[in-house]
Predict the structure.
Amino acid sequence: MNNKKKDDIFYVCTLIEYIARKTRNHRGDVIAYFNKDDLSRQLRLAEVNHSLSFEQVSDELIEEYHISNGDFDTVMECKYTVPSVTSIGRVYQMLVLAVYENDDVEQAMIDVFSAFISDEISDFNSNVYYSNPDYLRCSYLDGKMLE
């Protein structure tokens, strides 16, 4: 996979994280608004959208997909320094790249953001979001956090 495609995946993962924080939703709730074609479109638009603010792009997507507000506020509940949306976007990008198969990155994104591990990564009071990427991959594949 080329670097442009990896950058596009990073951008879309970060955008999903941003939308989830803005709407106070689980990341799995946000990804549920998108199907594979929608994600493919966002990946194609990533290079252009990257020059716009996350605020603008997220507002457009929230309106277009009618993403409602939730009550999952990981930022407000955080006792420590809140990791940036780009830091968490990078965690998701690395996990998606580690588990995707058959060049179906859109399905990998849906699977990762919908999995149990997404709420674990979103718990900013834990150490999961800065865990070793291989540990995250193995935990994801095992269906539970490894001890």
Residues 95 and 137 are 6 Å apart (CA to CA). DSSP finds eight helices and no strands in the chain. Helices lie at 3-23, 27-31, 36-49, 54-64, 85-99, 105-114, 116-122, 133-142. The mean pLDDT is 95.
